[in-house]
């Protein structure tokens, strides 16, 4: 069953969010997905998605650069190549193009989707098989308003949709952030796990002050308190506090994971397909963490359904993750571009079944939300 990659098309899709989503570096009212459609000579189409947060606010790739770099540089490296040897295609992209991990993740996802469809296997089966099919999913409270966040958490608990909450902080002063988080934790009590994501906003001294107070307030996990490259500082914070540190921006791939483990980091790692250049790189980091006894967390860059499904297939192969997942991206968007949305219930989501990602496009919706 051999096929050649014939064409790769990319589209920018702008979807409004259900409410403003406030992070330390930007407030989002809309999410832009870069949708990849990869067609092979046997007529099979693979879908992929490359998505970031807030244009260039989160990282060095923007939706526009992802699209342009796929169209100009990455797609030509793949077109005409044999479609089914994904390891070889991944190596080819790595050899001829540096960085651009989100763009590479979108392409690798499309290759996996196509190969799964070709063989009649789900992406998780292609990757060795799923060890779980219902994955826990937390919700991020980021309206910027304490009472609105509490009301939102109460609603999600009552709906049995989420019982773990992540609060985005770092845009305001440490004292204001701590008061906001402590009020939410006090309102929810033992009914919910409350964590924070600082998205690199603090220096180490502010982090010591902030984390001390957050630990006292009963917060369970502190995500990326200081800048990504400050590995030594993150190790110091992890050693200093009882509350665990979650490395996110600090750990893009297995290379970073190895450095942090080597430096004595004992916290947890957030995996994201977008950081590692696709599901395969994220699984490499996950396996390294499992070998080193580091707890895992399934992370998102707030992808829509295609990127979320690709991540779920990867996380499912790793077995239970100590800190669950945050694969709620589609729920933050007002609408979707797929025919069948993911099934969120009982504090988690079902792994989609069917060949490939198990996701089909709704062509009308795609056309409606595509940027002209
Ligand atoms: C991040 O840094 O974790 C994940 C959830 C959310 O609200 O933002 C993202 C990015
Ligand atoms: Mg994070």
From TrEMBL:
This is Muconate cycloisomerase. SMART domains: MR_MLE. Belongs to the mandelate racemase/muconate lactonizing enzyme family. Pfam families: MR_MLE_C, MR_MLE_N. Gene3D superfamilies: Enolase-like C-terminal domain, Enolase-like, N-terminal domain. InterPro entries: Chloromuconate_cycloisomerase, Enolase-like_C_sf, Enolase-like_N, Enolase_C-like, Mandel_Rmase/mucon_lact_enz_CS, Mandelate_racemase_C, Mandelate_racemase_N_dom. The keyword Isomerase applies. Its cofactor is Mn(2+). Signal peptide: none annotated.
